[in-house]
Design goal:
The chain has 106 residues and is an all-beta fold. It is built from no helices and eight strands. The strands form two sheets. A four-stranded antiparallel beta sheet has the order 1-8-3-6, with no helix packed on it. A four-stranded antiparallel beta sheet has the order 2-7-4-5, with no helix packed on it. The radius of gyration is 17 Å and the shape is globular. The two termini are 27 Å apart.
């Protein structure tokens, strides 16, 4: 992969490339969403980075057609980060209903 204009040409740290102009988000959103047996979105926020979802109970993460057979399963206290531009594209559900998804997104 070619160097990007903002790459730091000095020594690496832990074998990873360092960048001279790190970016940071200006704001973020958090919440707790109670899941139903059909896929629902957790927020309508537009994102610059993505969303981290943590399960309280068993839940499934996916697109608008998420289900127990095609969703990404998260067990109790498991989490996942999704690099995505809108919370409206991320759906969660649980079976039975009642599990919650905690999220932090930017």
């Amino acid at each position: 992969m070619p160097d990007t204009p903002d790459s730091y040409e000095g020594p690496t740290r832990n074998g990873r490339k360092r960048f001279s102009n790190p970016t940071s988000v200006k704001e973020f959103t958090t919440g707790i969403h109670t899941c139903t047996t059909s896929g629902t979105t957790m927020s309508s926020a537009e994102l610059a980075s993505g969303v981290r979802i943590k399960a309280n109970g068993v839940l499934y993460v996916g697109g608008s057609n998420v289900g127990t057979t095609n969703g990404y399963e998260l067990g109790n206290n498991e989490e996942v980060f999704i690099d995505i531009d809108s919370m409206e594209k991320v759906f969660v559900m649980s079976s039975p209903a009642g599990s919650t998804a905690s999220f932090i997104a930017s």
